[in-house]
Design a protein that fits this description.
The chain has about 250 residues and is α/β, with parallel strands linked by helices. The chain contains twelve helices and five strands.
Length: about 250
């Protein structure tokens, strides 16, 4: 059986967990929620919500050698192994050997929306916490390593046309599209990270991708200072973004 590893690189507040739900609802896919997060927390000392609980519960993910081994191969019997990664969790000192042979993709979001949402959770968040500098660096790294250009998808495009965008993403990753990706049961998942209690209220209540029903919230002054640089980085990534395949958009739902 062919085993496919997919590494989806995003920043926080980019519908990355809703995307995890979509892939986790497939019939052929196992998902892994932010496998680098506990090790990043330990290495950086970042004061994130639930830090001590996360580290205590994730001791098995703090051994870099073992973690890299598990990242590098799909478990037996799994056709597609989907890994949700925050780009800023891939610290320079972490090995990237496991990335070889994976199919990579990037999920981005308009910086104004991203920064306003991120500041609500992390009031002191700056440029590095957006994941945008790291996404651009990873994109260039993959190019230097000879990887084919990875698909880039924008969260607004996904929310406006889930079917068309997921069809385009699956085609770019060379996996079949499944209707099951468009809707999922509400509630928590065994595959959710320990941090879900602090971050996943909205996605736990969700059953599908939903268009925003309001304009972006104002960006606080601290984050507004980095908005121009975020826009530059976003534009570099967005220049490569996929467009939806022709499809029925009715599954956007509420």
């Amino acid at each position: 059986m062919s085993r496919i590893r997919i590494a989806m690189w995003s920043g926080p507040r980019t519908i990355s967990t809703a995307m995890l739900r979509a892939w986790g609802n497939r019939s052929d896919t196992m998902v892994w929620d932010e496998p680098l997060y506990p090790r990043w927390l330990e290495a950086t000392g970042a004061a994130h919500p639930g830090r001590e609980q996360i580290l205590k519960a994730s001791a098995h993910d703090l051994d870099g050698e073992d973690l890299n081994r598990r990242l590098a191969s799909a478990p037996p019997g799994v056709s597609i192994f989907y890994q949700k990664h925050m780009a800023h969790h891939a610290l320079p000192e972490f090995s990237r050997a496991w990335m070889e042979g994976a199919r990579h993709a990037f999920l981005i979001r308009d910086p104004e929306r991203l920064l306003a949402s991120l500041a609500a959770k992390l009031p002191d968040a700056g440029l590095d916490e957006t994941g945008l500098p790291q996404q651009v660096e990873l994109l260039r790294y993959l190019d230097e390593q000879g990887h084919p250009p990875p698909p880039v998808i924008d969260s607004d495009d996904v929310l406006n046309d889930p079917r068309g965008m997921l069809q385009a993403l699956c085609a770019a990753l060379q996996v079949p599209f499944e209707e099951r990706m468009l809707a999922w049961p509400a509630g928590p998942r065994d595959t959710d990270g320990v941090w879900a209690d602090w971050w996943y209220d909205s996605v736990r209540a969700s059953t599908c991708f939903v268009r925003p029903d309001r304009a972006p919230q104002p960006v606080p002054p601290l984050q507004a200072a980095v908005l121009p640089r975020c826009r530059e980085l976003y534009d570099e990534l967005a220049a490569m973004r996929l467009r939806p395949l022709e499809g029925d958009c009715r599954a956007t739902g509420t």
